[in-house]
Specification:
single chain, 508 residues, alpha/beta, 17 strands, globular
């Protein structure tokens, strides 16, 4: 009975019931206006026309526009209303102005760290990428930084706990998903002890990502333990476009000297203590040195965004660290849907377009727009060795079908695609020519590239790039290669289903 009560009163159930109630209310309103159906009908048509004109004039991806227009035009009575409820990014003028103020403070804090012009003298391709991110994402490139790559969450867990234990001044954590279990409990024990010692411990999580994994008002429980806590995008049981933008970032920072990011969330499946979709293959990158300071500013800017106050970032700046040679160039970057700059999309597109020998990509979802599709196909046609690894066991069956729907054009161009047969690959890595790489939170899908807050680390000539490439090749050996012949075995209905899914992929 207790378990049944817990399930029935879980906030996900309450949110779902609330949304169903709103649909029911809409149905009642329609019945109520049935006597005046002509007026209701023409008003809905007007809304759909206005929504169509708004979509056509907006600065958004053409595929995103097409998907919405295909949805609205055949259903003019409800299509426009549906777009008003859940379409777009839901960015208000106030949110943009607030973000601009936070961005300006981040830019001022990091203005003395800019080094892209020095990299330009060594390598113009690398320098051009770094200069783009310094100018448009306000993210400097660094040299005095060591990198350490972890090919599995299982291996990263011990290092996470080790670094947390060393904290003297502050610990910052920002994650999309936190799930009570062995992984989170081991971290929480350290956080409680450090907070009691006077260390400034802060936790930020996304409410949608934790809807099924944490109880409501978990932030209050953390505050009672001495851990400062903020919730990004607290769920409101109302159908709203505000739910489109989620904080998908994963950041762990200790004293501004050590930073971590990657695909790993704080849940047991990420360290293979719990099996959900076979073996969970993920990755993480640790930075030690100056590059970690940029990640600190990223966290503080999001903390300000969620707290509605202005932190003095310089109070958290670490003392000068010892010089670290032979570390190459690293550039932590962040991407926001609240501005008009598609940072993650541009990072990937630049890497693909400048490849000369090889492109190796791991991604849990392959739902790409025409620009990235063309860049991968053109590289393969030019003789570049392009290989992509996706999961064989899906976490979302429909999204998995959309991913497979994107295979044929790539395979026809010579791209080699593999599916990780032991389970689910969640790592978001890319290595180009063995000298450039990025590891982070960005999936190759529309939500990550255009709607979510994301982060990553771009690297040039760092020692760990060879480790990332080696991990890719070893993972490929455990994967099954997808052939063009196999994709053509589908029935006509299967092909039609995937074709329809691909059209509406930008809305998923």
């Amino acid at each position: 009975m207790k378990k049944l009560k817990t399930v029935l009163f879980h906030r996900s159930v309450l949110v779902g019931l609330s949304l169903l109630a709103q649909v029911a209310i809409l149905a009642v309103v329609i019945l109520f206006f049935s006597e005046h159906m002509a007026v209701f009908y023409w008003n809905c048509i007007l809304v759909s026309v206005l929504a169509t004109l708004w979509i056509l004039t907006r600065d958004m991806e053409s595929a995103y526009k097409i998907a919405w227009l295909i949805l609205i035009l055949p259903l003019p009575v409800f299509g426009g209303l549906f777009y008003l409820l859940v379409g777009g990014s839901g960015v208000t003028r106030y949110a943009r102005q607030k973000l601009e103020g936070i961005d300006q403070r981040s830019r001022d804090t990091l203005s003395d760290d800019l080094q892209a012009e020095q990299l330009m003298e060594l390598n113009q391709d690398a320098g051009g990428q770094a200069r783009y991110m310094e100018k448009y994402a306000f993210c400097p490139v660094y040299t005095n930084t060591e990198t350490e790559y972890f090919p599995l969450g299982d291996l990263a867990q011990a290092r996470i706990l080790e670094e947390l234990e060393k904290a003297e001044h502050y610990i910052f954590l920002e994650f999309f998903i936190i799930h009570e279990g062995e992984f989170w409990s081991s971290i929480l024990e350290v956080l409680k002890r450090k907070a009691a010692e006077g260390v400034d411990v802060r936790l930020l999580y996304d409410d949608f990502g934790c809807m099924y994994t944490l109880p409501g008002h978990y932030d209050k429980r953390m505050e009672e333990l001495g851990i400062k806590c903020r919730v990004f995008g607290r769920l409101v049981p109302v159908v709203s476009i505000r739910q489109n933008n989620r904080d998908h970032r994963k950041l762990l920072i200790v004293d501004g000297k050590v930073g971590m990011t990657g695909g790993i969330n704080l849940a047991d499946e990420y360290i293979n203590r719990k099996e959900r979709f076979g073996h969970w293959k993920d990755s993480a990158i640790f930075l030690r040195g100056e590059g970690a300071w940029s990640m600190t500013v990223m966290f503080l800017s999001m903390w300000d965004h969620c707290s509605d106050w202005h932190e003095d970032y310089d109070l958290f700046r670490p003392a000068l660290t010892e010089k670290r040679t032979g570390g190459g160039w690293v550039q932590p970057y962040t991407d926001s849907p609240l501005d008009r700059e598609k940072v993650s999309w541009t990072v990937y597109l630049n890497m693909f377009s400048r490849a000369r020998k090889s492109i190796y990509v791991t991604t849990p979802y392959l739902i790409i727009d025409e620009s990235i599709n063309a860049a991968l196909c053109n590289a393969a046609k030019a003789g570049v060795d392009v290989r992509i690894i996706t999961p064989h066991i899906p976490d979302k069956p429909m999204v998995f079908q959309v991913t497979r729907a994107h295979y044929p054009p790539l395979l026809e161009a010579g791209v080699r695609i593999y599916e990780y047969t032991p389970g689910f690959i969640h790592a978001k890595n890319c290595v180009v020519d063995g000298i450039y790489a990025t590891v982070g939170t960005v999936n190759l899908d529309y939500r990550s590239l255009f709607l979510h807050f994301e982060d990553g680390v771009w690297m040039y000539d760092t020692p760990c790039i060879q480790e990332i490439q080696r991990d890719f090749l070893e993972t490929m050996e455990k994967s099954e290669e997808v052939t063009l012949r196999r994709t053509r075995r589908l029935s006509i209905f299967g092909r039609l289903y995937r074709a329809v899914l691909r059209v509406f992929a930008p809305l998923m």
